[in-house]
Design goal:
heterodimer, A: MetI-like fold, 12 helices, 77% helix, globular, B: 317 residues, mainly alpha, two-stranded antiparallel ribbon, 1% strand
Chain lengths: 277, 317
């Protein structure tokens, strides 16, 4: 028994070391964001900012277009997720509750489309959106994001709906409920957590997206926050690492918060389906 | 409905039933129609255009006129005769293979470690993994830039302090190989949590009685892993491998931003960047379309295993 306990203690040490290594970049980002410039530029690093400063956050927030681009990101992401959830939910109900001709083809499309690499689609999407004068508009970006969010949401929601026992719905229908009544009063409340998890995940993927936003939006005032962050360094010689890390922290915060909320639920959905990377 | 039901004759009831049956048959199609319609418009049509543009001379001038000039398979010909394309393809395949192997091996090792930890350490480690998982790629790139900067990057400091060597003001981005190696560290770091947590979930399906029985029979832990654990987690590993191959083959954000727009050259191109530079930056959309099609064909070939497996899941349930 003692040998086993010693064994476990050994593994625990390895585990803590692993934790330190994996989390270090995130820790370093946050810690840098609160340091003074002297500490940041010194050759010997300061591990913990004992006298934290908020100056870098102020600098980052005052950079041109920060708030505009955050607003752009929010608009793009919320509209994308809103449309994707409504349409995908309907299709997911069809996939999980009905057998119909063409169902297999639809499944193949939903899965296959998620496998397409984003980079491979920039040319056609750019050219087609240019034809309809939707380059450099948020509408164009929303349409592009839907190509990823829709199939992902269909597949994940299908998994959540299948997770609800059929008997519940059948019982309601035996008790005289109509199919729609059973749907509204039994299925919908039960699938709500799945809807939340899926929409948050779609939110995160759209918020993090870079390549299409970079290609489609070329005005500083029209960009999303990831593009804003990628241009942050600009062309100045002396890099403002403190402000860059503060800006990075601000960009990551909404994602991290949401992610922590839904992580448990989505781990299941992810292995059942897949997101475009 | 109510008034119609009040005046039902035998004939009309019959007719109404078959109509409603027909109506019920239409329900799934009505439900999938919006998704199919939207996807057709925003993806189907662009893919049709992709094929058309790849057969045309389509530059900035044609983009403004919205009209290309048909030139047959010329774009494909020049791409396939371009040694840069073949070098990039080979580099991308090697790069993806290395990233996938590292991610899967380290991820599985972490999952096996998680099983052996006390609960509180396990929660700590999974919490850390989730934090890493949720870090946006663009943010991670900026943190990497800062951690590995030449002047006073903390990585150089730590390596020097640990006596790994003298890394004072070491530049990690001098050769194509070192640049791509740094991209690999970034990608593997970001991809580990998904793999580790998924494999860990799969490990909970391994029957403990079997493991204990094998141990009592005197099997070494390596044999227990090979004969008892591995067969159970193999399906999950297969899915993770094919997903990772696809993601790492088509990767763009991390290499493009970490290497830096000013430093991407034909010597360190990955497929996504090659396509972006040749097609979009140089505004040669016809050629870019041809490269896109070649890339999509390769990805389709790589994804056959995964897609077939997922379709099976979709059909059964």
């Amino acid at each position: 028994m003692n040998a086993r306990r010693a064994h476990r203690a050994g593994w625990n040490v390895v585990g803590i070391a692993l934790f330190a290594v994996t989390v270090f970049p995130v820790f370093w980002m946050i810690s840098t964001a609160f340091k003074t410039n002297d500490q940041i530029n010194a050759l010997t690093p300061t591990w913990f900012p004992l006298h934290p400063t908020l100056q870098h956050f102020r600098d980052a927030l005052n950079k041109p277009f920060f708030w505009t681009d955050v607003k752009n990101s929010l608009v793009v992401v919320l509209v994308t997720v809103g449309i994707a959830m409504v349409l995908a939910f309907l299709a997911a109900v069809a996939l999980s509750k009905y057998r119909f001709t063409g169902r297999k083809l639809f499944i193949i499309l939903v899965i296959g489309v998620q496998m397409l690499p984003g980079a491979g689609l920039i040319i056609p999407l750019y050219v087609v959106l240019a034809r309809f004068h939707e380059v450099n508009t948020l509408t164009g970006v929303i349409l592009v994001y839907l190509t990823g969010a829709l199939p992902f949401s269909v597949w994940t929601l299908r998994g959540f709906i299948l997770g609800i026992p059929k008997e519940l719905e059948e019982a309601a229908m035996v008790d005289g409920s109509t199919r729609f009544g059973a749907f509204a009063r039994i299925l919908l409340p039960l699938v709500a957590p799945g809807l939340v998890a899926t929409s948050v995940f779609a939110f995160i993927t759209s918020w993090n997206e870079y390549i299409f936003a970079r290609v489609l939006l070329n005005d500083g005032s029209k960009q999303t926050v990831t593009v804003w962050l990628s241009y942050f360094l600009g062309t100045s010689r002396q890099t403002d690492w403190g402000a860059l890390m503060a800006a990075s922290t601000l960009t990551a915060v909404p994602v991290v918060v949401f992610f922590l909320l839904i992580q448990r639920r989505i781990a299941f959905g992810l292995t059942a389906g897949a997101v475009r990377g | 409905m109510a008034t119609a039901a009040g005046t039902t004759t035998k004939w009309s009831r019959h007719r109404r039933l078959s109509l409603s049956r027909l109506g019920r048959g239409a329900v799934p199609y009505a439900l999938v129609a919006p998704v199919v319609g939207v996807m057709g418009a925003i993806l189907g049509y662009p893919i049709y255009s992709l094929v058309r543009i790849s057969l045309q001379r389509y530059g900035l001038f044609e983009l403004i006129r919205h009209h290309g000039v048909y030139i047959g398979l010329h774009n494909f010909g020049t791409v396939l005769h371009d040694s840069v394309f073949w070098h990039t393809l080979l580099r991308t395949l090697v790069f993806a293979a290395a990233n996938v192997a590292l991610t899967l091996v380290i991820g599985t090792l972490i999952a096996l470690l998680l099983v052996r930890l006390s609960t509180w350490v396990r929660l700590l480690v999974t919490g850390g993994l989730v934090l890493v998982w949720s870090t946006p790629p663009v943010v991670a790139v900026q943190v990497w830039n800062w951690m590995t900067n030449v002047q006073n990057g903390v990585v150089n400091y730590i390596l020097t302090e640990l006596h790994v060597g003298n890394y004072f003001q070491h530049n990690w981005y001098t050769t194509s190989f070192s640049q791509l190696a740094m991209v690999t560290t970034l990608i593997v770091w970001g991809a580990l949590p998904f793999v580790a947590i998924t494999v860990y979930a799969a490990l909970s399906q391994v029957p403990q009685e079997l493991v204990e029985a094998a141990e009592i029979d005197g099997a070494r832990s390596w044999r227990v892993f090979l004969d008892v654990t591995l067969p159970v987690i193999t399906p999950v590993i297969l899915i993770l491998t094919s997903l990772s191959i696809l993601w790492d083959f088509g990767v763009f954000t991390q290499p493009y931003l970490l290497i830096g727009q000013a430093h991407v050259t034909t010597g360190n191109y990955l497929m996504g960047i090659y396509l972006f530079e040749e097609g979009y930056v140089r505004a040669d959309f016809g050629r870019g379309a041809a490269i896109s099609i070649l890339m999509l064909v390769i990805v389709a070939a790589l994804s056959v295993v995964y897609v077939r497996r997922m379709i099976k899941i979709g059909e059964v349930t």
